[in-house]
Amino acid sequence: GVTSGAGVIGTTQEFDSPTATAVTALAAYLPNTRVATFESDDMQGAPSINGGDEEIDWADYITRTPEDTPHALLFADARTFHDSYLRIMDNMLPFGAKVGGLVAGTQLLGDEVKEGSIGLLLDGGVDIDPM
Question: Cβ(6)–Cβ(21) under 8 Å?
């Protein structure tokens, strides 16, 4: 995935500019892991899930045990984000880790201007331990 922002922190330096844009890229090798995307335009309810060829519903995740629950990488538009959305995600994934951040502006999906949130559900061979 790729996200952009006016300020980006790397391993050894910070880039911050009101007139320039920086890009951060994330790549991962996740064997034995099912990845699904999710998005919400208004962050008022459960986000819609896109599991590719698989039919996936939030009911598939809500009843999972702590050892079997997926985790979420969540990126939300800073202008439209509200705390109640995290409570919604906690209800959808009661035992899963939710990590991510706020993105600057509303360009979450390339050239398509979008408000709300996007993210990935990582199910299977991955464990996230937030610090």
Answer: yes
pTM, full prediction:
0.71
Alpha carbon dihedral 90, 91, 94, 100, in 10-degree steps, equals -30
Q: Write out the H or E segment, with its range, that includes residue 24.
A: strand 22-25
Percent helix, percent strand, percent coil in the chain, to nearest 5:
10, 40, 50
- E-strand ranges in 27-97 read 33-40, 48-50, 71-77
Retrieve residue 56's tokens: 């996936």
Per-residue pLDDT tens digits of the chain, which is 131 residues long: 444 555 454 545 555 555 555 555 667 788 899 888 898 888 888 888 887 777 788 888 888 888 888 999 988 888 788 888 889 999 889 899 998 888 765 554 556 656 788 899 999 888 888 76
Tokens 């899930």 locate to 49
**Could you report how far apart the first and last alpha carbons of the chain are, in Å?**
22
Token pair recorded at residue 122: 């990582």
